[in-house]
Design a protein that fits this description.
alpha/beta, seven-stranded mixed sheet, four-stranded mixed sheet, 14 strands, 13% strand, globular
């Protein structure tokens, strides 16, 4: 394993797609009905009653009962009261192995003591926010510039969504062009212009409820792994205002749910150079999880701008930022001293002392302890173990990983394809996606009942806290779940 990276070897992308295509061609195999009924009654109703009661009360004041999409779990969200290393604990006292890791930011493991102590020291002195400059703003920016070769300057923002918004404004100012091209199926936050082609390539505006279609006049998508499709869009855009930027996740949309060929990013870099577009890497998930120099360091490709989130605040709030070359970052300079036309950017809580300090000490600790390599080894061990279990029970499921980002596809919901040219098939495809999503939710509930917290029942993040013993314990729990799948004797 290369130093500073979590990937020991790059996955066989062709084989993964072959396996995924087979998965979605077969009937759905989820938890048996009798087993699901038992899980709902004997685990969730009996052992999670305090969580259910609190969520029921919360639903009177909070739409849906929870504030964050990650919290929506079938049959109802659980209330967690403690996080430590590889484990989570709920309101009823149940203990879980944490493969959610807050959606990815806690590479060290949840609530690491070394970072927590530094944050408490800061709270005892400065407090969480002053609205004025603090030394950790400088220290965090300096650390990121040191770690990521393509980043010469860094500005912290309140979230990954805000950083994505800022990046496209900078690109338009820098290039004086209009169009933004994104990879279909990718999520780049919930701003109007980027709520396009979400989760499943080809969906265009279909999931952008509340956003006028006219907003997407200068936004296009292209199919993942298809350089010819990207070039076709870039060619067309020459006569429609030009392309300001191509925005991609370097491991593939939705944290590599559709993985990319190893050399794909280099091909995108070349096309951006050819057509005068900026290359923007969305490294909200991958920066400091795939590598200390980001996924861009692993692939050896320098983007013009990099979007940061997740790890940049070490699991604390206000996790977002934009980094890049000085010639582009001048457009996000603060204050009144610059004569450059600036992008409209704000954020009262951005770069607050608490988040800046947490991010700085998290990165220092990760660098010092080899956390990326440890989390990657855990991801490899987990994935290989899952692959053995899949073979053991002759299941069509697909498990693969990109370092500490692990995928366990049991229904392949996001691997369905939308064909806009055959518009009459779209409704049926979306209905199939909803059907598969429900099956995935049931798998997630089954995992939860065995003390395994995952992201939507299909993605798992490993951390440096996941020892061999933790992973081996987790695999025994997955074994028990797989025994309950339809068709397993």
């Amino acid at each position: 394993m290369a130093q500073g990276f979590s990937m020991n070897e790059y996955p066989n992308v062709d084989q993964i797609y072959k396996d995924l295509r087979k998965l979605i061609s077969l009937p759905i195999r989820s938890i048996r009905k009798d087993a699901m009924d038992d899980i709902l009654h004997n685990y969730f109703e009996k052992k999670c009653s305090k969580s259910k009661a609190m969520i029921t009360k919360a639903s009177e004041y909070i739409p849906g009962g929870v504030q964050h999409n990650l919290s929506f779990n079938h049959p109802f969200p659980l209330v967690f009261t403690k996080a430590s290393g590889a484990y989570l604990y709920d309101l009823d006292g149940n203990k879980y192995i944490d493969f959610l890791q807050a959606g990815g930011p806690t590479v060290l493991g949840s609530n690491p003591s070394i970072v927590r102590k530094k944050v408490i020291e800061l709270l005892d002195t400065t407090g969480p926010v002053t609205g004025l400059f603090h030394e950790y703003e400088y220290k965090l920016a300096q650390k990121i510039v040191e770690l990521v070769p393509s980043v010469e300057m860094f500005r912290m923002l309140g979230s990954g969504t805000e950083a994505c918004m800022a990046s496209i404004r900078v690109a338009r100012l820098a290039t004086k062009k209009k169009n933004i091209v994104k990879m279909g199926g990718a999520y780049h936050g919930w701003s109007d212009q980027l709520a396009y082609g979400l989760r499943i390539p080809g969906t265009r505006h279909f999931e952008a409820n509340g956003v006028p279609k006219s907003i997407f006049k200068y936004t296009q998508e292209f199919y993942p792994n298809d350089l010819n499709a990207l070039e076709s869009v870039l060619k067309r855009n020459r006569f429609r205002g030009g392309t300001a930027a191509v925005l991609i996740e370097p491991v593939g949309p939705e944290s590599g749910t559709r993985p990319l060929d190893f050399d794909f990013n280099k091909g995108v870099r070349e096309l951006c150079n050819k057509y005068g577009a900026l290359l923007i890497f969305d490294e909200v998930v991958t920066a400091f999880r795939i590598g200390l120099s980001g996924a861009q360091g692993y692939f050896g490709v320098d983007p013009d701008l990099t979007i940061f989130g997740k790890v940049v605040a070490g699991g604390y709030p206000s996790a977002g930022g934009l980094g890049g070359k000085k010639e582009y970052m001048k457009y996000v300079s603060a204050g009144l001293q610059t004569g450059t036309k600036k992008a409209l950017i704000g954020g009262t809580m951005a770069a607050n002392p608490l988040s800046s300090a947490a991010g700085y000490f998290t990165l220092c600790e990760m660098e010092k302890t080899g956390a990326l390599e440890k989390s990657g080894r855990a991801g490899d061990r987990l994935t290989k173990g899952l692959q053995k279990l899949i073979k053991k029970y002759d299941l069509p499921f697909v498990a693969f990983n990109q370092g500490s980002i692990c995928h366990l596809e049991t229904v392949g919901t996001m691997l369905l394809d939308i064909n806009i040219k055959k518009f009459w098939t779209i409704k049926k495809t979306i209905a199939e996606a909803h059907k598969r999503k429900h099956a995935m939710e049931e798998m997630g509930a089954a995992y939860m009942s065995e003390g395994l917290v995952t992201l939507a029942g299909s993605r798992l993040y490993t951390s440096a806290s996941d020892t061999d013993a933790v992973i081996d314990d987790a695999l025994k729990r997955f074994d028990r779940v797989f025994q309950k799948v339809e068709g397993v004797a």
